[in-house]
Design a protein that fits this description.
Blueprint (H helix, E strand, L loop, with lengths): L18 H4 L1 H12 L4 E5 L6 E6 L6 E8 L2 E6 L19 E2 L6 E2 L5 E3 L21 E4 L2 E4 L7 H12 L8 E10 L3 H9 L4 H4 L1 H6 E10 L3 E8 L5 E8 L3 E6 L2 E11 L2 E10 L10 H7 L4 H13 L13 H7 L1
Antiparallel strand pairs: 1-9, 2-3, 3-4, 5-6, 6-7, 8-9, 10-16, 11-12, 12-13, 13-14, 14-15, 15-16
């Protein structure tokens, strides 16, 4: 494995070597070094009645989690029984407590152990080890997030960019569709494509007609990148595209929010999940949202070519500055 090093000076910076995208060792290392330490999307919190099971990045981390709601207080717990490891809750629903279907162990909604049949007289029982593990959890814009071993508080990932965006209208958001697409490419390659708007006039002609590329702006922060596109007449903001490291995308439109979760499967395969949260259906057809979501797939051929040439050794590294991609420098650096 080659070492990874990105020059902070964009005039000198070069892209990662192709090994990062093709070597299974780098892919496996990213589980521990990147995804276990970053904040991952769970759901909109209106979807939680009392209990909602969530599998955190099924193909990469595969961690069973449980969102618990007690009035307006939310917690994220391990969804694994502390007795024999059975999954506790398999379907979302209403409940006053959590009960294991294997041996009847019970927990309160905050994860604390309550009781266990036929364990009377057992010494040093119960202990803290019998409580469900509490997972670091954060709320933002009405959405829930979790991190197994966070490298930094969630505020470090979101607060700075929100000071630029300002208030986002989130009242009335409803999940109207969930779609998944398989991409024959490394997860980071998909993210890099999202992060640079340089290709829009050349690849996405219909989107370019809606968004004025000449006024397109990109702002970088410690853990996020914000792209803003004005309407073709430059009269209003057509869309804001927010990337939160390492794999979350929040696309803000007049009608609502499209959330994209990039889920790594292997060095050569990625699943991208599209969750559409609509606030005002009447604004959908006239916005950039549907166009942008559909046109993302025009770049699939480019990803396949990159993978093929990387496997052959034709591509090793590239010069970032020629692509006007300071946002990619933030991502890979």
């Amino acid at each position: 494995m080659d070492s990874l090093s990105i020059d902070a000076d964009i005039k000198k910076a070069r892209t990662l070597t192709s090994d990062f995208y093709t070597d299974p060792a780098w892919f496996d290392l990213s589980k521990e070094k990147i995804f276990a330490r970053s904040w991952q999307f769970l759901c909109h919190l209106d979807e939680v009645a009392d209990l909602k099971p969530v599998m955190l990045l099924p193909e990469m981390l595969g961690e069973p989690l449980l969102l618990s709601r007690d009035n307006d207080s939310f917690r994220c717990l391990s969804n694994v029984c502390t007795h024999r490891g059975k999954i506790l809750v398999e379907e979302p629903g209403r409940a006053k407590l959590i009960r294991c279907g294997y041996h009847g162990r019970r927990f309160s909604l905050d994860g604390c152990f309550l009781s266990m049949p036929e364990f009377e007289g057992v010494e040093e029982f119960p202990s803290e080890a019998d409580d469900l593990r509490l997972i670091p959890f954060a709320e933002w814009l009405g959405f829930g997030f979790a991190a197994l071993e966070p490298a930094a508080p969630f505020g470090d990932f979101a607060d700075d960019v929100m000071s630029v965006i300002g208030e986002i209208q989130t009242e009335g958001l409803k999940l109207t569709s969930t779609r998944e697409y398989e991409v024959d490419a490394h997860w980071a390659l998909y993210c890099e494509n999202y992060l640079e708007g340089f290709h829009i006039p050349y690849v996405h002609h219909s989107l370019n007609a809606i968004v004025d590329y000449g006024s397109y702006t990109t702002e970088t922060f410690r853990y996020s990148v914000l792209q803003t596109g004005l309407s073709a007449a430059r009269e209003e903001i057509a869309a804001r595209y927010l990337f939160v490291f390492p794999n979350l995308m929040f696309n803000f439109y007049p009608w609502g929010i499209s959330v994209n979760v990039v889920r790594p499967v292997s060095p050569a395969k990625t699943i991208v999940e599209f969750l559409t949260y609509v606030r005002d259906e009447s604004l959908i057809e006239s916005s950039a949202g549907p166009t942008f979501m559909g046109l993302k797939w025009k770049t699939k051929r480019s990803w396949r070519v990159f993978k093929r040439e990387s496997d052959r050794g034709s591509i090793r590294t590239g010069d970032i500055r020629r692509h006007a991609s300071k946002e990619r420098t933030i991502f890979i650096g």
